[in-house]
Design a protein that fits this description.
Shape: globular
Number of helices: 13
Helix content: 40-55%
Distance between the termini: 57 Å
Strand content: 15-25%
Order of helices and strands: HEEEEHHEHHEHHEEEHEHEHEHEHH
Structural class: alpha/beta
Number of strands: 13
């Protein structure tokens, strides 16, 4: 009864090995790896030393809300088409979001079939000339989170997360198409004496983007919990891949200020990372506040605005924010959900009209 599954697993392992081998051979095929510039303000291409400014899209779901792993097996041509479209729109970076539950079948062994698909994605990025911001440990669809994962205590959960990243870095290490590994989307550290029941924050649009890295503070300083978590996962990555950059996707309330505070304070966590990533959506009539928040993330490492979009303001105000953010930011990553400007123009949906305005702005406003 188990032989077909075993055979499929073996085939996936062979495919993974072949794809990783192809990625390794393509290292000198044209793309250059990216590193932080010597002045620490931005990025450069490894061999030529030319400046590199991340400019691209979050490819976090398709036009129907499906996550990448929901369709990359059966609809690979769609993924290829979407990558071509993002390149044609002027992107040089694509941020992909990998779900923990699709890659880990238990605390230790990874899913070789999922890793083979990831290797295929890396190869596609090389072919398309697009760099990947690889964001991991996603739990965006709560129903896909393994029950065993939620039952782990902090130590075992962090260990399982480190195993996820070792497996991902083992695939990515041979490819120049990896821009960075983003440890997690919008993590939050527990309160000093807090005890929680859930690992995930409240949903937004049916998806869970915010995660707690621990459910118990145990009297520890929140920012030190955050730093220890980053150190453990970054160490796991660098043991497999010492050449690519490491960051973490921060909510803009990751500052030591009154009110909401994720406790991932830039000055505390920066020594563990190659650059900082912040998710910042300017609000109507509040561009000054957005710029002030962005400036607070400048602590001696490059800052990429890893998520941004005219979600809460007009495109005109968003453009003002973009222009004024240039002295503080080293890159910008918006959103693309698989619908081209031409398709948006033909649509009668308000959401498509909104997206059309964004994509037209993106094509014109290169940094």
């Amino acid at each position: 009864m188990h032989r077909p599954r075993l055979r499929l697993s073996c085939l996936a392992a062979v495919l993974l090995a072949l794809l990783v081998s192809c990625a390794t051979r393509s290292r000198d095929a044209g793309m250059e790896s990216i590193r932080v510039s010597f002045n620490g303000a931005g990025f450069v291409l490894e061999r030529s030393g030319r400046a590199f400014v991340p400019w691209g899209f979050n490819y976090d779901h398709d036009e129907t809300g499906r996550l990448l792993e929901d369709y990359w097996s059966a609809e690979w041509p769609k993924v290829e088409e979407d990558f071509r479209e993002m390149k044609q729109l002027g992107a040089n970076v694509v941020r992909v979001h990998l779900q923990f539950g699709r890659f880990m079948v238990s605390e230790s062994p990874p899913n070789t079939n999922a890793l083979a698909h990831f290797a295929r994605l890396v190869h596609l990025a090389e072919h398309a000339g697009l760099y990947l911001d690889v964001t991991g440990l996603g739990c965006y669809h709560k129903q896909d989170v393994p029950a065993w994962y939620d039952e782990l205590d902090e130590q075992r959960r962090w260990s399982a997360q480190a195993n996820f990243w070792r497996a991902i870095a083992r695939v990515g290490r041979g490819s120049p198409a990896i821009f960075c590994y983003d440890l997690m989307n919008e993590p939050v550290a527990p309160h000093k004496d807090g005890v929680g029941k859930e690992w995930l924050g409240p949903p937004f649009g049916g998806k869970y983007f915010v995660q707690w890295i621990s459910r118990e503070g145990q009297g520890r300083e929140r920012s030190e919990i955050a730093r220890a978590w980053i150190r453990q996962l970054a160490t796991a990555i660098r043991a497999e891949d010492s050449s690519h950059l490491v960051t973490v996707g921060l909510v803009d309330w990751s500052l030591p200020r009154p009110g909401l505070d994720s406790a991932f304070h830039p000055a505390v966590i920066a020594p563990e990372l190659d650059f900082l990533s912040v998710h910042l959506y300017p609000e109507k009539d509040k561009v000054n506040e957005a710029i002030d928040r962005l400036h607070a993330f400048n602590v001696g490492k490059p800052v990429v605005i890893e998520e941004t979009f005219p979600l809460k303001c007009s495109v005109i105000e968003f453009n003002e924010f973009f222009q004024r953010s240039k002295p503080h930011a080293a890159g910008w990553i918006g959103f693309y959900w698989g619908r081209t400007p031409e398709e948006c123009r033909r649509s009668k949906e308000m959401a498509d009209a909104f997206m059309l305005g964004w994509l037209e702005w993106f094509q014109k406003a290169k940094p």
